[in-house]
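Check out one such.
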Amino acid sequence: MDKIKDEIERYLMELCVFGHTPQDGVTRLPFTKEARAAAEYLAGKMQELGLAVHVDASGAVIGRLEGAGPDTIIIGSHYDTVENGGKYDGIAGVVCGLSLIRMIKEEYGNSFPYSIEVMATNDEEGARFSGGFFSSKAMLGLWTMEELRKNKDANGISIYDAMKAFGMEPEKLPEAKRDLSEIRAFLEIHIEQGPVLEKSNKEIGIVRAIVGMRRKIVKIYGRADHAGTTPMDMRDDAMEKAARIIAGVGDAARNYLNSVATVGCIKAVPNAINTIASYVEFSLDIRSADQDNLNALERDIQSLITQSASHYEIQETVHIDPVEMDQKLAELLAKTAEDCGYSWMKLDSGAGHDSLITGPAMATAMVFVPSKGGRSHCPQEYTDTEYLKKAVKLVYQAVKQLS
């Protein structure tokens, strides 16, 4: 019997029930009954471990093991998912934190030199409101009431209204802001969500940097007319303009090393087979670990939009620059991986994480574990719990050295 593996596996299988889809995926969007059920489950497991538990004003579930000193080490990741996502993204890091707490209590009781918190953040993905990093931004005091009212889901429900309907008080969100002087480190265990570790036959990844990100909603305006009676040279076709832009997004990204750009969703009005589209709205996700490439790619796509459409709007929902992880923490994790006998490598993260937000504000580090086939954000997402166990042991040994 492998206590750590079995514990992690049990947590993950019990949690995937909250939002399980017919396709064997998981849909757990923020401020939904599925999110509430997962949060209540996590709070219950934290209480079983003897932690002081509270849900902060952003919906993050926090379990705290009080230590001998005032400083705090946070082990954090998120409990929300994308639509029909996997069972491991985000939540694996949370349950790894629970296992780590158990190990600390077994060795130290309540006398660890630092306080340890497991933080399960809310709405990291941005799958519902196109923004994301909700709890981590709240922890730094980065939200305004205006942003809460402006950011809306596909049904026109704002974050502000969703919070109220969920029984939360948006006006109290500033209470989630933390005193950063008390936080010694933010550590995140996460599945890689890519193929590099598996292809390289490595058990552990130590993250060097996380890509910068721009997320936008692009709105193209035209005029609705009859599809059969309006000559081609007399049309103001929003769909045709949007199609030209979308077709060029990928090619624009290919001009820049380690940069990507994606149009993931699209909405047309009136969305009828025999009517010219009067309005098209689509998402735009631009990422790069290189600041200059990120800026240049953003400018190129902006130029593409300007050239293709005369009447448009662009709403930016995320604007985050690339972030390097704390070098000392990364070196400690690398040395500890060596001491543990784990195969490891350094790599950059092409996905955004809560660590992307915390990185500029506090000492932050990430540990990646392999994703089978590099698959993520889909029901086929899978990581062997043997790797997660090794990540827990690695972080546990590193945290002890921090003290």
About this structure: The two ends are 30 Å apart (CA to CA). The mean pLDDT is 96. Residues 217 and 322 are 21 Å apart (CA to CA).
